[in-house]
Design a protein that fits this description.
mainly alpha
Length: 114
C-alpha cells in the first residue's frame, strides 16, 4: 500500500516536471521567435507517424527510425515556414493563431478521413 502511494507520487512528480519543461521550452521558443504557433503538435505527430510507418510497414528497428522522424518533422516544418509562416511574421497575433489553428484543423480532418 505504501509502496503504491510512493510510486504514484513519484510518477506524478516526474510527469509534472516533464510538462513544466515542455511548457517553459515552448514559451521561450515562441517568445524569441515572436510568432504564435499552435501547430507544433502536428509537427510532432508527423515524426510519430513516420516512426510508426517505418517500424510497422518496413520493419525498421525503433532506434533507426528516430533520425528519420526528426528529418520528416523538420522537412515539413521548413516547407510550411517557407510557404505559409513567412508571410505572417509582421501580422497580428490573431492572424498567426488563425493560420496555425487552420493547419491543425486540416491535419485532423485528413486523419479522420482515413
Amino acid at each position: 500500500m505504501l509502496s503504491s502511494l510512493a510510486t504514484v507520487l513519484f510518477d506524478g512528480l516526474a510527469y509534472g516536471m516533464l510538462l513544466f519543461l515542455l511548457s517553459v521550452g515552448l514559451s521561450v521558443t515562441l517568445g524569441m521567435m515572436n510568432f504564435v504557433n499552435l501547430a507544433h503538435c502536428s509537427f510532432a505527430m508527423v515524426g510519430g507517424y513516420a516512426t510508426v510507418t517505418l517500424v510497422n510497414s518496413f520493419g525498421w528497428p525503433f532506434l533507426a527510425t528516430l533520425p528519420m522522424a526528426f528529418l520528416a518533422g523538420g522537412f515539413i516544418s521548413i516547407l510550411l515556414e517557407r510557404t505559409l509562416y513567412r508571410h505572417l511574421y509582421r501580422s497580428s497575433d490573431l492572424d498567426q493563431c488563425l493560420l496555425t489553428i487552420g493547419i491543425v484543423s486540416r491535419h485532423w480532418s485528413r486523419s479522420e478521413e482515413r
